[in-house]
Amino acid sequence: MSQPRPVAVIVLAAGEGTRMRSRIPKVLHALCGRSMLGHALAAAAGVGPERLVVVTGHGRDQVSAEAARCAPDVRVVVQDRLGGTGHAVRMVTEALGDLPGTVVVTYADMPLLRTQTLAALLREHAAAGNAVTVLTVRVPDPSGYGRIIRDDAGSLAEIVEDADATAAQRTIDEINTGCYAFDGALLAGAVKRVATGNVQGQEYLTDVVGILRGDGHPAGTVLAADPAEIQGVNDRVQLAQAQRACNGRLLEDWMRAGVTIMDPSSTWVDVEVTLAPDAEILPGTHLEGRTDVGTGARIGPDCLLRDTSVGQDATVLYSVCESAEIGPGASVGPYARLRPGTRIGPGAHIGTHVELKNSTVGEGAKVPHLTYVGDADIGEHSNIGAATIFANYDGMAKHRTTIGSHVFTGSDTVLVAPLTIGDGAYTAAGSVIAEDVPPGALGIARGRQHNSAGWVERQRPGTGSAAAAARARQAALPEAGGPEAPAADEEDKGIEGVEGVEGTQAR
Ligand code: UD1
Ligand code: CA
Q1: Is 369 among the catalytic positions?
Q2: Rg for the chain (alpha carbons), in Å?
Q3: Residue-wise pLDDT tens digits, 89-143
Q4: Is the CB of 109 under 6 A from ligand 1?
Q5: Secondary structure (DSSP) of 238-295
Q6: What is the Å distance from ligand 2's center to 120 Cα?
Q7: 192-246 confidence digits (pLDDT tens)
């Protein structure tokens, strides 16, 4: 059943949030990839208000910017001093003029409040014809909250704040959540009449209930079905609890939609993530931002994916991927890193200790081991050998490399960009390829090997290597007692390693 459309939802966000002990305003702290303010605005937007209003005070510039980012047509009203919740609402009614219709008031620091709860409040408010309807909840420890005071007939009479309550009133366990539906015209008049003769010397929005009842208007309550939903966040302990609760709710929804989550306690998803049925999420996986995972894809264990799309039946294992696209049937990892702008084609394979950035990998291509691919396009069915490095950066600018289809690069190749390797070409292992390789050619760019015969026996006498070399030389002779170890080559003279042989290497 749909609820009547409110004329406005007012989200109060002027408080200081000192217990967060933070540089940033409390309501900008995020859970499941969305600020608390963003959660409150999303829940509010869900009931389709004509206007969405945020009251800011502390950190108003940052809060206003975040409000506008979350809800472009939001109206921000500034409360220049923390005069209380009644003062905050008075600032809105004075700024916006007449609000003929239902006005909802809620808080920016209740991130778990759901649209459906606001909708239930609105339905009851309309059905009962109330001037005000208060969302309430029963809690084991009501201290600190405003208490719901009922008359002899059991209907809502007033709300008394904890600080102002009598001992008897303090025993009441039904509390004010801070979320209300009001008749907008009556609200505008009543907030002007709220006095400040209370312990905190503030204008209490809660006093509007007593004022409207005193005028003979009907008031009522809706008991929230799930007390967890109205849990406010005041410090980082409560932020972590709210985050786990929000995450648990999202995972439950995905599981009911056909997604396998092997270990919900170690799996974290953001609100904007989407998961297709039969996707399988293994332990230790974090899915952030606008990540989406296709049918039958298997992610984890231990992956971090941000703003990444994973195609049908693809697998990602022990990897970190950001702003990447992984095609259907592709496999990534273990231990791969996909940086922004990486697109992996269907059925392609990215293996162990491979990093890619701003690159495309064609269908069926393989980059299996120990490789850096930066600013490159790799054609379909090409195979990039172990320890290939795409040298894309000359210290000043980045350059692209284009690899055709069915190319085979040998192990330990350095590809110096800008560079093009044609279809079906090969490169020899250990080459530094700085010039284009035409289609079908073998590019080879490395020193030629020279073996300095007998070097070990001459230069490393008395070592195990020298003894092994002597034995091998003896065994190779037709009969025992063969010649001495060979005399020194010209190129050995004065060397302690391989430097001396370099001069003999030819291309
Ligand atoms: C308020 C209610 C209390 C209720 C409780 C539920 C009043 C007088 N009391 O108490 O009955 O049980 O919430 O959590 O309303 N804010 C402003 N401007 C202000 C003051 C507050 O925007 O001048 C905002 C805060 O940022 C916060 C919300 O209003 O989001 C509640 O303010 P807070 O000071 O926490 O109210 P409580 O005293 O807890
Ligand atoms: Ca509070």
Answers
A1: yes
A2: 35
A3: 999 999 998 899 999 999 999 999 999 999 999 999 999 999 999 999 999 999 9
A4: yes
A5: HHHHHHHHHHHHHHHHHHHTT-EES-GGG-EE-TT-EE-TT-EE-TT-EEETT-EE-T
A6: 23
A7: 999 999 999 999 999 999 999 999 999 999 999 898 999 999 999 999 999 999 9
